[in-house]
Q: What sequence folds into this?
């Protein structure tokens, strides 16, 4: 079995991955990573308040904090994949942005200081979606459109 056929062989360089990484791909990765970091910080904040503070339900606060930190893995892994030009990474990154839009909408419906956070989240999610579906980004990740098998 040659190294090309070996399932353990490292990925071969994609022809689209030659050259510098497009700025749009870098910006999409940065926005996705920013969302992941925000989830980690939010999860840690809830976890610390749940442990050190006086929450109504300590177990619920700890569970919420841990859940947010686990959810942060999706955008953080997608960020790493986008920076490494892995085609699989666009899916989790797009899913992260789609999940962020209803959260932004709910923050905008609140009658509190959450409105600026909702605006910021909506802007980041829409901008990241536009960057992720851009043709330059798609080519840089080596993603072909339907019917383009490249045979």
A:
């Amino acid at each position: 079995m040659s190294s090309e056929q070996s399932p353990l062989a490292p990925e071969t360089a994609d022809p689209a991955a030659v050259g510098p990484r497009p700025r749009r791909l870098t910006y999409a990765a940065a926005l996705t990573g920013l969302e992941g970091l925000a989830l980690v910080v939010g999860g840690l904040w809830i976890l610390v308040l749940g442990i050190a503070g006086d929450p109504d339900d300590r177990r619920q606060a700890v569970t919420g904090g841990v859940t947010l930190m686990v959810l942060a893995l999706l955008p953080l892994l997608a960020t790493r994949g986008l920076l490494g030009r892995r085609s699989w990474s666009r899916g989790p990154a797009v899913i992260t942005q789609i999940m962020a839009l209803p959260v932004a909408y709910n923050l905008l419906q609140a009658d509190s200081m959450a409105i600026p956070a909702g605006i910021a989240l909506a802007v980041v999610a829409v901008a990241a979606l536009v960057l992720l579906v851009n043709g330059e980004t798609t080519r840089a990740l080596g993603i072909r459109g339907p019917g383009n098998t490249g045979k």
